Amino acid sequence: MLTIGELASYAGVTVRTVRHYHAKGLLPEPERDGSGYRRYGADAVVELIRIRTLAEAGVPLVRVRELLRADEEEFAAAVAAIEERLRSEIRERQRQREQIGRLAAGDHLVLPREVVEFLDRLRALGVDERIVQAERDGWIPVAARSPERVPEWMARKREQIADPRFVDFYLTLGRALDRTDDDPQSVELIELADELAAYLTRMADDRGDDYVDDVVIEPPLVPLMDALAFDTVPSARRLIELLRKRGWTGWTKLERADPPERADPP
After folding, report:
1. Which residues of the chain have pLDDT under 50?
2. Which of 236, 220, 251 is nearest to 146 (CA)?
3. If you classify domain 4-103 with CATH, what class do you get?
4. Neighbours of 231 (CB within 10 A)
5. pLDDT value at position 184?
6. SS3 80
7. pTM score of the predicted model
8. Where in the chain is the domain with CATH 1.10.1660.10?
9. What is the pLDDT of residues 85-106, one digit of tens each?
């Protein structure tokens, strides 16, 4: 015969837990013997281990009580259901673990691999990090809404940054980020507008207007992406004003301005 302390030790629980199970009606509490102690038989160890196992598996104590009273077939079915639930929870925890692991990879959490590689390429080319972040923020809603089109769009982006002139546009815009309109060096932004407008016009004339911006973005996303870019890269708003005077308009969606506004004087 076992004392409550010995019972708890054999079952791998605390004395307090045994008493809790007594209070919940899960484990019968024996009468005291002549010396005033409660003594437990070996069967109590087996029963306590069953209770502990079910409770640790997340089975509510009310349900544990029902299972202890079930016949062998019902108990086996219940245990199978518990096992399946635990497997499902393990899969969910694994998914969450993978998500948390991706946090360490930064952009990988919210962006496809192709986009992350493109952003890393911009950094390697020396593009200002603020411009990279503007690109990143713009791609997040686009990739979420149209993930199936990301490979197609990224192929176009890779083609663009393979052109040294296009990379120069990024670099020039980066140098202009901290300029103000009354800064004499803001001429750098004006020159960028001239060069970019000429480049766009040449591409459109050679390959058609659709080539300039054949990325079909859902209309509701265009102002959102523009706002994200302008918040991160304020110079972009000024650049768009300058481009409009040179025959082009838009940031996320570039298209000819018809008719073009009068260009700034040199």
Report:
1. 184-185, 214, 265-266
2. 220
3. mainly alpha
4. 12
5. 47
6. helix
7. 0.49
8. 4-103
9. 888 888 888 777 766 655 555 5
